[in-house]
Amino acid sequence: MTGPAGPGRLASFLQLTKFSISAVATLSAGAGHLAGCRGVRWGLASTLAGTLLMAMAASALNQVQERDLDARMERTRGRPLPRGALGPGAALALALGLGAGGFLVLLAAHGRTPALLGLLAMAWYHLVYTPLKRVTAFAVVPGSVVGALPPAMGWSAAGGELGDPANLALCWFFFLWQVPHFWLLALLHRASYEQAGLPTLARHFRESQILRLIFVWTCAAVAACRLRPAAGGGDRDRRPGGGGPGPGLAVAAGPGRAPAAARTGGPDPGGVPGHQHVRPGGHGGRGAGLSRSAH
After folding, report:
1. Which of 28, 110, 271, 282 could form a disulfide with 157 if both were Cys (CB 3.0 to 4.6 A apart)?
2. Rounded distance, CA 38 to CA 40, Å?
């Protein structure tokens, strides 16, 4: 990098890696990890570190890819590559180093799944979304897959299954909200996009129609928030020695009473077919209310 050492170089580094945007992607991975663990655990730190490094790598690589577009737009001309503070080769090397570091952190701490999901996010961003931006104003729709992957990285790093409905609901929300968010920014910076020759929604719709589209997608994202509580999930279902009675039956039995399996040594009548029904007035004095709750 050229220019003074210290703050100038740090500012260029943060600009190249789009640190604030990368941090948002990292927080979404953290949300996935917290949802998967249903609490804070030691693995959260390595999940955040690995995701942040890969997000910063993706941002730097994106600026290498789009340095010609950045040079055409007034709002991006001050980025390190267009202004000559850094050469494309150095930026590419930095991006590859950050990406490799993030991949290795996730691989070492959490295994292949979150690390490979990070690679998939980078590949989708650079090989699908970035080229599509030059072709269609609707590139953000398939491109939003990139934003749905960090929560899945966090979820899998916490030990969750990718096919868990709760994980899918979380990823679906992050997919949906990016579309109206990007279109609002595109509407705000429409002149810059057109100056760079990028397709915009304004070529296809009036501003009032674009705002209606944004409203519909926003409503869909809000509605998706209701899917997460309904889906449940997390490690509350992954109890040690799984298959035992859950807390619901113990609560139903009332204070100081244990489930039937604990009192008699036999199977829990709520989960084994052909068990002996406990009748009101029978052994232990249980009433009809507990019999119904056990079934």
Report:
1. 110
2. 7
- When divided into structural domains, the chain yields a total of 1
Write the single-letter amino acid at 41: R
Tens-place pLDDT, residues 185-225:
888 888 888 888 889 898 889 999 999 999 999 999 999 88
- Which structural domain range is residue 26 located in? 7-234
- Over 50: is that where the pLDDT of 33 sits? yes
Place of tokens 């970035």: 130
pLDDT in tens, 38-83: 767 889 999 999 999 999 999 999 999 999 999 999 889 999 999 9
Domain holding 173: CATH number? 1.10.357.140
Residue for token digits 């640190």? 19
